[in-house]
Design goal:
6 strands, 6-stranded parallel sheet, alpha/beta, Undecaprenyl pyrophosphate synthetase, single chain
Length: about 260
């Protein structure tokens, strides 16, 4: 139980954070808000261990619940597309019991996203996933395809190299059905042909990519699409990522001069 002095300190701290949030929010112009934000939701396992949980699934569950807060912040800010990296192709090789628990958490989260009316799109190699998980993702996409508002890409079984390989494979199959020879395709092939076959085809590339937990690398996230993205790395584990951290990321993005390779 908190004593009066500790309670007062907490109230002062909370007030200070709210004032700081308002200050950050008021400094942002709608013209400086990224259309597409990618988020590598990293640090769930380490959060669980630091909180004293023996089962890292507690961290995955806490992180999944936190996704809905983030999406609320994005909607409020005016972000149009959010891509959440929830499970990489490498993650599939973790201990079977952890992967099984994480897949159940992802299924629950995706169902809830659909129930809340978000426009959900699976992004990843669904053929690598158990049939039940793939079906949940496909069902959520079909049920929400006409939903207005922000698009939520759910990256499950996702790897950037795998995505590019899948895009090239789809491109070859597409042209083979049209009777195009390899020689003819080689003459006309350009970057747009590949981009048109990515998991995110037709969407704007991510303007801002956020990674939590202190790791400063992409790890294969949106390799093709992030060529001109701005990156923001936050030390907080994903379950501890606060709205003030999100606003700081937006402020950092707004302060940068984007040359887009020029």
């Amino acid at each position: 139980m908190l004593n009066s002095a500790e309670g007062m300190r907490m109230r002062i701290r909370d007030l200070a954070y709210r004032l700081y949030e308002r200050r950050l929010e008021s400094s942002l112009s709608q013209d400086s808000i990224p259309r597409h934000v990618g988020v590598i939701v990293d640090g769930n396992r380490r959060w669980a261990r630091s909180a004293g949980f023996a089962d890292v699934s507690e961290g995955h569950s806490k992180g999944a619940d936190h996704i809905f807060e983030l999406l609320g912040w994005c909607r409020q800010a005016g972000v149009e597309v959010v891509t959440l990296w929830l499970l990489s192709t490498d993650n599939l090789f973790r201990p079977a019991d952890e992967v099984e628990a994480l897949l159940r958490i992802i299924e629950r989260t995706v169902r809830e996203l659909a129930a809340q009316g978000w426009h959900v799109k699976p992004v990843g190699a669904l053929d690598l996933l158990p049939a039940e998980t793939a079906e949940v993702l496909k069902a959520a996409a079909e049920a929400t395809v006409d939903n207005p508002g922000p698009l939520v890409n759910v990256a499950v079984g996702y790897g950037g190299r795998r995505e590019i390989a899948d895009a090239v494979r789809a491109l070859l199959h597409d042209h083979a059905t049209k009777g195009t020879t390899i020689e003819e395709l080689a003459e006309i092939l350009d970057v747009e042909h590949i981009a048109d076959h990515l998991y995110t085809a037709g969407q704007p590339d991510p303007d801002l990519v956020i990674r939590t937990s202190g790791e400063q690398r992409l790890g294969g996230f949106l390799l093709w699409q992030s060529v001109h993205s701005e990156f923001y790395f936050c030390d907080a584990f994903w379950p501890n990522f606060r709205r003030v951290d999100f606003l700081r990321a937006l402020r950092s993005y707004a302060a940068r001069q984007r040359r887009l390779g020029r």
